[in-house]
Structure formats: C-alpha cells, structure tokens
Design brief:
Layout lengths: L5 E7 L8 H9 L1 H8 L2 E8 L2 H6 L3 H10 L12 H12 L5 E6 L2 E8 L5 E7 L9 H15 L2 E7 H6 L1 H14 L1
Helix pairs in contact: 4-5
C-alpha cells in the first residue's frame, strides 16, 4: 500500500510491556514514517497499542496519535486539519490543557488554552506557509491575529512542518506561551 490512500488505516504502535528503550526512541525519532502511515487515512484511523506502556515510555508522538484516534482530539463540529489534530494530541499528551476548536466573535480558533494566570491562548497552525506568493494569506492572518489580540487572546502560530518534523519544539513553543501567558 506504499503511498496509497485508503478509507480506513489500521496502525499498530508496536509498543508493549517490555519494549526496549531503543525501539521506542527509534519510533519517536522516525516521526516522518508515522506521518506517512497515518496521513493516508481518508476517513478512519484505527490505532492499536498499549496506552499505559506508551505513557510509561513517554512516547509523546504515539500518545498524541492515540489521543487523536480515540477521539480525544475530536473537534466541536469544526473540521481541523491533520496537523492541528496532531498538535492537539501532542499537547494533551504533554499534560497541557488544550481544547480543540472554538469560536470567538465569529473567528474560528484551532486550539485554545487558558494560562495559569487566566490569559487566553489561541494556537494556530500555519499549514501552507509557502503557497501564498503575493502574501495575501499572511496579511489576512496578521489582521485576524490583531483582532484576536483586541479580543484578549494571545496568538501563537506553529508551522505545520514543525509539528511533523520537530514536535518537541512545537510543544515547547506552546508551553512557553502558556508560562508567559
């Protein structure tokens, strides 16, 4: 099925009690392989694995994937992109109080959190940064973000590529915003 899309993809984390740390480290380091496997699902992604063992092993990527597949990252009636869903799962796996999907004054919010001091944080995923040769989308985002700040939101933008290729940095960026609030 190399590269082919299917209505349903079955994915095994291959992590069970007694899994060697090197196996887990390799899987966490090969996120691109996980991305290729799961991004081929057109409608359903079924993930098999041992959640307790994933938590014990601190396998953040696989925990995020499990959260996504079990519906913990289900949006509230809005359609979120795959990168947004993955980031949400990673944030939840990291213990951050992330909520997928919200709306404020008609503006859709991808992921929201409330900082310890009560500050509201809007996390947006920039899915196609290079597909805007005239800068129209970037200008629209700048206006939107300014409006969100006027509504009392701190806006954090995370590039899509970073979620897939360097998820630890993506989570760290959001965590820093949470601490600064």
């Amino acid at each position: 099925m190399q590269g082919g899309e299917r209505d349903t993809i079955l994915f095994s984390t291959v992590i069970a009690p007694g899994a060697l740390p090197g196996t887990i480290a390799w899987l966490e380091g090969e996120r691109n392989l996980i991305n290729v496997a799961v991004s081929r699902a057109k409608q359903h992604l079924v993930v098999f694995g041992n959640r307790a063992e994933l938590k014990r092993a601190k396998a953040a990527t696989l925990l995020g994937l499990a959260a996504l597949a079990t519906g913990r990252a289900a949006s509230r009636g809005q359609s979120a992109g795959e990168a947004t869903k993955l980031l949400h799962g990673l944030l939840v796996a990291a213990g951050l109080p992330a909520r997928l999907g919200n709306v404020d004054e008609g503006y859709p919010l991808a992921i929201t959190m409330t900082a310890p001091g009560g500050e509201r944080i809007d996390i947006e995923v920039d899915e196609y940064p290079d597909g805007d040769p005239r800068g129209r989308t970037q200008r629209q985002r700048a206006v939107r973000d300014a409006n969100m700040r006027r509504l009392g939101w701190q806006v954090v933008r995370v590039p899509c590529w970073q979620i897939y290729l360097d998820p630890a940095t993506a989570v760290h960026t959001v965590h820093q915003a949470m601490m600064i609030g």
